[in-house]
Design goal:
It contains 15 helices and 33 strands. It is α+β, with helices and mostly antiparallel strands. Strands 3, 7, 8, 9, 10, 11, 12, 23 and 26 form a nine-stranded mixed sheet that branches. Strands 18-16-17-19-22 form a five-stranded mixed sheet. Bound molecules: adenosine-5'-triphosphate (ATP) and magnesium ion.
């Protein structure tokens, strides 16, 4: 391809709305263009990168025995009603009506469609197992679309769904997909980790995420320095009682505590609402404070409010709360609900005296003896609060976010905090969808049984963005070679110099003939501008035809390297071809 003909709108400035490096560089290098919030055009070079990711995925999925299909973007509400998700799925599901008033959504994921597909065509255990995948555009009306391709509203996903007659077959396919994903992300040239994950909205029991390690990653992970345990903090099991932040806590000796602890008393805390404010004002560490949160939740059966109590130094893990309550939605309560339940505005709430409310305490709350909590009275807190004495510990659960320094649940070594970008996710779904949608097959004895299912997703655009987050320098992107839009660019320093132009053209043609993906920078730009552009875009290697041509030489350089190497002009193309193949 001749760059004079290529649509390559590179920019010198970062786009104003870009926060992370991949968003900045993908826009500046002319790979993507914003059309609306979270919705992008893929320009010629961006499209090539996307196709490369897709082709790596496609090759490995085919090799693993999965079959490619293509399902629609527009999905009838009826299928989502069958699974029960039409109402459960939040506002991310873009619902709309056609001219006949029939309801539809834009598919954010395709369990419903594929389950209906299997129901129509797979009737016997003899047709199982089956793994169907697609590479297709999804739409999710994300609350906070940002970071360019990393969290878009419209994005390309590879989603695969497997169907099985028994758990053993699902286990085998899950393992097969896990290995396939490892091959895919290795082929993409990415450093990644497999972490334990929460199964979230999709349901099911076992799930793992593939995380590309990057400072800007949206996901917080805890990773054991000694063994292979890594988990999304959303899913990380907190260390068992007795260990917190890597050091043993004295086990609470309730007897002595109760006998010796003074009774509860009020203390005036004007305008001191947050843990930090109260802790500083009363000169007591956050470990000694009881944090009280009021949450709203909604599930199939009910919607209600709960009071959550945690140590002041801990954060609530909403995913754990959601799982504990078996809720579809959990949200911090509105101020009006807080007032109704506690009689006071947020900031001064506490569990003492809340007779009617359902109070759930994190399991470490009972390690506090003589703590501080809101008094359910404006500008007032309570001192000397003993959980179990001054309020009931009827329900306790592991509700806090696990933290760096806590002990690994497998080997006891301290966990480290790292950040990652979730590029892939594998789940064991079980019979959640097949049961709800009555998708069954006949087993060997002729009995109808629901399919046992697995599902496996990869974000295609997010994978490309993650590659940039891991591979860049001050000049621009350094694509892993497998994802680079082109492998080589031939740059005549001055296209108006007939000798340079002719030599560059000849090398370009030879590279093309040798099967390389190659660009010719035939623009009438200064050499500095051309080099800058190609460094920004991240083309894997370059051949500059410039001054050295008078000595029969051209300059070769890898994008990732600092120094030029002189190659004899006659052998240049063959040498470059050999290196690109190596
Ligand atoms: P996240 O927690 O990041 O929202 P998710 O758990 O909702 O992800 P899945 O439903 O498992 O994601 O989707 C499969 C894959 O699709 C993810 O691993 C991710 O790579 C990609 N993906 C999900 N949401 C987006 C998005 N908004 N933009 C780009 N890629 C996405
Ligand atoms: Mg999501």
């Amino acid at each position: 391809m001749r760059i004079s003909k290529l649509l390559l709108p590179t920019l010198r400035e970062d786009p104003a709305d870009a926060e992370v490096i991949s968003h900045k560089l993908l826009v500046r290098a002319g790979l993507i263009q914003k059309v609306a919030v979270g919705i992008f055009n893929y320009l010629p070079l961006g499209c090539r990168v996307i196709r490369k990711v897709e082709n790596i995925i496609r090759a490995e999925m085919n090799r693993a025995g999965a079959q490619e299909i293509l399902m629609p973007a527009v999905v009838p509400a009826e299928l989502w009603r069958e699974s029960g998700r039409w109402h459960k799925y939040g506002k991310e599901l873009l619902r709309f009506k056609d001219r006949k008033d029939a309801e539809y959504c834009l598919g954010p994921t395709h369990e419903e469609v594929v389950t209906a597909l299997a129901r129509a065509f797979v009737h016997s255990y003899k047709q199982l197992p089956l793994n169907l995948y697609q590479i297709q555009t999804k739409f999710r009306d994300e609350l906070r679309p940002r970071f360019g391709l990393m969290r878009g509203r419209e994005f390309i996903m590879k989603d695969a769904y497997s169907f099985h007659a028994d758990e053993a077959s699902l286990d085998a396919e899950y393992q097969n997909m896990r290995e396939t994903y490892c091959r895919i992300f290795e082929a993409c040239g990415l450093r990644y980790k497999i972490v334990e994950a929460d199964s979230g909205n999709i349901g099911g029991s076992v799930s793992q995420e593939f995380m590309v390690l990057a400072e800007n990653g949206e996901d917080a992970l805890l990773s054991c320095a000694q063994c292979s345990y890594s988990a999304n903090v959303e899913a990380a099991v907190s260390a068992p009682l007795g260990y917190a932040q890597g050091r043993p806590l004295d086990s609470p000796n309730k007897k002595t505590t109760l006998e010796t602890a003074p009774g509860v008393r009020e203390i005036s805390t004007p305008d001191k609402r947050t843990i930090e404010e109260v802790s500083a004002f009363l000169k007591t560490p956050p470990e000694n404070l009881l944090k009280t949160l009021i949450y709203y939740y909604k599930s199939n059966e009910r919607e209600d409010h709960v009071v959550i109590v945690l140590r002041g130094c801990d954060q609530l893990n909403e995913v754990k709360l959601k799982n504990y309550l078996q809720a579809d939605i959990v949200l911090p309560a509105e101020d009006s609900a807080v007032r109704e339940i506690t009689g006071v505005e947020p900031g001064f709430c506490g569990p003492v005296g809340l007779k009617k409310a359902r109070v759930i305490s994190d399991e470490l709350v009972k390690t506090i003896s003589g703590g501080v909590t809101g008094a359910n009275k404006k500008d007032t807190h309570l001192l000397n609060v003993v959980p179990g004495r001054d309020f009931e510990l009827k329900e306790t659960a592991d509700l806090r976010l696990a933290q760096a320094g806590e002990k690994c649940p497998h080997c006891g070594a301290p966990l480290e905090a790292v950040r990652g970008i979730e590029v892939g996710h594998i789940f064991k779904l079980g019979t959640k969808y097949s049961e709800a949608m009555q998708a069954t097959y006949l087993d060997q004895s002729g009995a109808a049984r629901p399919f046992i299912m697995g599902c496996y997703g990869i974000g295609v655009g997010r994978t490309a963005a993650a590659a940039v987050e891991q591979h860049f320098d001050a000049s621009g992107i350094i694509w892993p070679p497998a994802l680079a839009p082109y492998q080589c660019v031939v740059i005549p320093a001055n296209i108006r110099e007939p000798e340079q132009a002719a030599a560059a053209e000849k090398i370009y043609q030879e590279l093309l003939a040798g099967g390389a993906e190659v660009l010719l920078d035939d623009r009438e730009e200064r050499i500095g501008v051309k080099l800058k552009d190609m460094e920004l875009v991240g083309i894997t290697s370059r051949v500059v035809v410039g001054k050295a041509l008078s000595e029969g030489k051209v300059e070769f350089r890898w994008r990732a390297a600092k120094d030029n190497e002189l190659l004899p002009v006659a052998a240049a193309a063959q040498t470059v071809l050999a290196r690109l193949r190596a």
